[in-house]
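During the no-cost extension, the postdoctoral fellow (Dr. R.K.) reprocessed legacy sequence entries with the updated structure-token encoder. One reprocessed record is reproduced below for audit purposes.
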Amino acid sequence: MRRRHLIVAGASLPLLCPLPGLAPWTRAMAGDAVPFDASTVPALARELAARPFRPPSRELPAALDAIDYDAFRDYRFRSDHALWRDGGRFQAQLFHRGFIFKERIDLHEVEGGRARPLPYRRDRFDFGPQPPPPDDPALGHAGFRLHAPVNREDYFDELCVFLGASYFRAVARGLAYGLSARGLALGSGDPGPEEFPVFRAFWLERPAPDADTAVVHALLDSASVAGAYRFAIRPAGGQTRMDVDARLYPRVALRNAGIAPLTSMFEFDHGDRAGVDDFRPAVHDSDGLALLTGSGEQVWRPLRNPPEISHSGFQDNDPRGFGLMQRKRDFADFQDAEARYERRPSAWVEPLDRWGPGAVHLVELPTGNEFADNIVAFWRPRAPLAAGREHRYRYRLHWCADHAWRPELARAVATRSGLGDAESERPRQYVVDFQGGRLDALGADAAPRVEASASAGELRNPVAYRLEANGRWRLSFELWPGDARVVELRARLLDAAGAPLSETWLSRWPS
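Re-encoded structure tokens follow.
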């Protein structure tokens, strides 16, 4: 793990304390195997939500409480102690507590309909030159990761990791860790402090020897809400698929809930380098927000590193999907031999139920480096989530290099802007390159129609033409903002009958 991901994942984790009466969780922590089925964690979450939230302790033995980043890196799980090494396509390894991961997360293994705790065992870890901590079974763990054959059949790659608050990440074939997902966002991009729910306990189902899917259950908690999650995790070809079943039980009405949140990093790109002094042409884990609306419109919104916090909402009803995507896939796009940003995964959220009215929110924070995630995307329902009842959201999360929605549409592959040619009023020139779909089949003398608009100011000289150098189609226009402080831009290419040839490109000025 890179240091940036360690730091981001460790935000504000409560410590798990036994809660009287919460069977089987309480009894399992005492060492007994207890019955477990699909209703177990939802029942625990409902009962937890009925109790006042109690901020737990973050206490650790002194030896763990004081270790720094370098010492913590020496704490490594021994792969020969991985769960399920005796057969099958999945293995599990556990994370030690310490450094910024001070909070105890309780882990359980489920087999044959019974759950048994996974107490801390010092012999499962290698501490390098560091003195080992006390061998206390009650110490607990910080999280876990799953391994599976991803890139080749004879090696168990790290597949996904659950570590820090409600953060989790995954990879797929040929990809490395990049952006993260979360169980729930509360107040992201809104005025006031953000609330970070935490997965306080996990139940890992032991997979059958021939199973192609691993199942994990999680208990979420925070001051405002408790929740029960079920993850069905399946590496399949070029993607890793997670089917997520989230049941939320708010303690108070939630007006600022973010469902299926994704968190990523964008510092700069080829067409957004103002003030950048860096040998690399681009630095980002994701380069755009993709939307597939309830009406079937495919939308692309390039990400920005704004001068101040930017919060956008894209209204929709029963969305078909959204995601933070990494479209650039060549080493030449980044020229970074260490970070290898071209190998960072995209993450696409596909609702499995009707989510009703609401909006996909995009929060962009200013950043001067690549070490902190500054991009958040999530779904926010229009109506608040009422307290005292269950709210259920099921969705499929695709971790992948690419994802096809409407293959007949050309995709925006590059966005650039700069000062226009006029000597007064300083217009902004935009060029957007499209490639793929039916657009590629048009002859050189074809004339796609340009549909472009601006929410304020004036948009002039829209035109589309084919680039001889690479065969792409380029859409170009000038924005004359006038007195406007913010302008929302929208453009796409149409055929002669008015049907879309490209996805819809969105942007905001100033960028």
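The mean pLDDT is 91. Residues 411-509 form a domain with the Immunoglobulin-like fold (CATH 2.60.40.10). The remaining legacy entries will be reprocessed before the final report is submitted.
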